[in-house]
From TrEMBL:
It catalyses: guanosine + phosphate = alpha-D-ribose 1-phosphate + guanine; inosine + phosphate = alpha-D-ribose 1-phosphate + hypoxanthine; 2'-deoxyguanosine + phosphate = 2-deoxy-alpha-D-ribose 1-phosphate + guanine; 2'-deoxyinosine + phosphate = 2-deoxy-alpha-D-ribose 1-phosphate + hypoxanthine. This is Purine nucleoside phosphorylase. GO terms for cellular component: cytoplasm. Belongs to the PNP/MTAP phosphorylase family. It comes from Xyrichtys novacula. Phosphate binds at S37, H68, R88, F89, H90, A120, S224. The keyword Glycosyltransferase applies. InterPro entries: Nucleoside_phosphorylase_d, Nucleoside_phosphorylase_sf, Pur_Nuc_Pase_Ino/Guo-sp, Purine_phosphorylase. Pathway: Purine metabolism; purine nucleoside salvage.
Length: 293
């Protein structure tokens, strides 16, 4: 077990960190964004930035993965107050699952109402191409099936109920908004929707595994996001998430393709600007009271 595996982060711990942050910025974010691998450019779009390195924030984990800068950035996106994680945490970094998702509870205590998550993922759906953007409509939580769920352990009702519903995890209005905005921006050709499957990583999938996940109903596979979604929904925030298909998951024994993190980051660079435009335009249409403009 990892040294911190049994440490739980209480409501008071999360509140202390949120209060520490609020004392140092006037921004009162209603939208929280989590940037996936190589997609941290979204945070750079914020105006009037107040940024913190993760290492300076009490109780915050540190980013250890290339493509995850490790900064929490407050600011405004086209006038809307936002907070943006430029870098997220993954199970394979060795953090307990409650620590990976700690920032999401801090978002809640900062006043965030809507969480937007992005990630890099391997495409399983044979109709997907590298560079496609998949609006996530649902997820398969493989670590969760093995008992590794961020809500395991004592439940604090101040965050949410013991048994939260997940059949409405991905907000349908926000999915529709993404379609509408995507088509307005001329992104229809590479906009898709589908089911994201989270695995533990860090090894990429074997061919037998990609075939199995595809058969189970997954359209894309990655190593993040679902844990954050569960915690965000538990404490009542609205969730929108998308995957950039950075590589085709290898499903054929004749293929010469090999999944690698460099390709993941490279695809992020190529599609990054469009993804930033999609998300920032969506943000302008989300009202503070969680309605759409
Ligand atoms: O999910 P994000 O953080 O975008 O990162 C994805 O990219 C990395 C693999 O290249 C893994 O960490 C996978 O989860
Ligand atoms: N598990 C997994 N994560 C990814 N992140 C980006 N691409 C992939 C992939 O092919 N598999």
């Amino acid at each position: 077990m990892y040294p911190e595996a049994n440490k739980s982060y209480t409501y008071e711990d999360c509140k202390a960190t949120a209060d520490w942050l609020l004392a140092q910025t006037d921004v009162r974010p209603t939208v929280g964004v989590v940037c996936g691998s190589g997609l941290g450019g979204l945070a750079d779009m914020l105006k009037d930035q107040v940024a913190f390195n993760y290492k300076d924030i009490p109780d915050f984990p540190q980013s250890t993965v290339h493509g995850h800068a490790g900064r929490l950035v407050f600011g405004t996106m086209k006038g809307r107050p936002c907070v943006c994680m430029q870098g997220r945490f993954h199970l394979y970094e060795g953090y307990p699952i409650q620590k990976i998702t700690l920032p999401i509870r801090i978002f809640k205590l900062l006043g965030v109402e809507t969480v937007i998550l992005t990630n890099a993922a391997g495409g399983l759906n044979q109709d997907f191409k590298v560079g496609d953007v998949m609006i996530i409509k649902d997820h398969l939580n493989m670590p969760g099936f093995a008992g590794n769920n961020p809500l395991s352990g004592p439940n604090d009702e101040r965050f949410g109920v013991r048994f939260p519903c997940m059949s409405d995890a991905y907000d349908r209005e926000l999915q529709q908004l993404a379609w509408d905005v995507g088509h307005e921006l001329g992104y229809g050709e590479f906009l898709k929707e589908g089911v994201y499957c989270v695995v533990g990583g860090p090894s990429f999938e074997t061919i037998a595994e990609t075939r199995m996940l595809h058969k189970l109903g997954a359209d894309a596979v990655g190593m993040s996001t679902a844990h954050e979604v569960i915690v965000a929904r538990h404490c009542g925030m609205r969730v929108f998430a998308l995957s950039l298909i950075t590589n085709q998951a290898v499903m054929d024994y004749d293929s010469q393709e090999k999944a690698n993190h460099e390709e993941v980051l490279e695809t992020g660079k190529q599609r990054g600007k469009q993804l930033e435009r999609l998300v920032s335009t969506m943000v302008t249409r989300i009202e503070h009271n969680n309605n759409l403009v």
